[in-house]
Amino acid sequence: MRARLRTRLRWSSRSPRDEGEATELAAIMIGVFALLLLFLMMGVRWVTAEAAQAASQRALEIAQAPSATNPAVDAVARRITAGVLLISGTDVRIGQQEDLVSVTVTAHSPLGGAVSSTATGPRIHFVPQQQSGLHR
């Protein structure tokens, strides 16, 4: 029996109490990896949402102009989201009512999922200033 114990001690420098440490370390590392992955996904979603919001606001400014065209609004929104490397695709929807214009920009993330942002505002009409008959 002593020979077995000596052989075991020679080949293994760990004590019997240390047997479960590898399993505990693996569980902790999986948890840390999952937490880092969660933070990465939240960061990508946040960047995607910010780009969609910025694109919808800027596209609304273009859409409110008296001479606005749908291709121009679409191009502005796509140009803004194309500048963000974390966005894999963009959809632009323009809604026009009598005096309101709305632009919805949907930005697609490469990790899956999409974020939409809608901006709505009044249509701007150009009203020329009336000239008065008084001259100074």
From TrEMBL:
Transmembrane intervals: 21-47
Keywords tagged on the record: Membrane, Transmembrane, Transmembrane helix
Source organism of the structure: Frankia umida
Name used for this protein in its record: TadE family protein
Biological classification of the source: Bacteria, Bacillati, Actinomycetota, Actinomycetes, Frankiales
